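Notes to self after the call with IL:
- keep both proteins in one doc
- input above output, always
- annotate only the second one for now

Protein 1:
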Amino acid sequence: MQAQNETGSRTISARQAIFSKYLTFTLVDLMVLNFFPEYWDKVTITSFGVSPFCSDYFTSTTKNDLTP
């Protein structure tokens, strides 16, 4: 259970903030990456299994943007 402050709202730890940013950026990268083969003939992704690895790579290369 998370601690509540004086106003009754819950506080988010730094680890939770980094995790939520990382997850959000990974899902956005995954979505954008999968739009390319749909709407552009020059890009080919052979299977969906390749996409999460590429998305994770893109997110990890921008890791400096994720830290608070």
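Protein 2 (the one to annotate):
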Amino acid sequence: MKKRELAKMRKQPREDLVKRLNEERKKMRELKFNLSLGKASNIRELRLRKKTIAQLLTIIKNNES
């Protein structure tokens, strides 16, 4: 995620962030499944999904406090 996107995400309501988090987790599950079957070969995308999920969780936690 780029810095501009992160700045926009920090301003979004918690519900939208949780919704996006669930979507990212679903996409990551599908990607892992496809990698195990040999259908997908882009490992970099998996790393980016993990990073995005971590950033979303951090934003959600920071907004709570």
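Annotation: Residues 18 and 58 are 12 Å apart (CA to CA). The radius of gyration is 13 Å.
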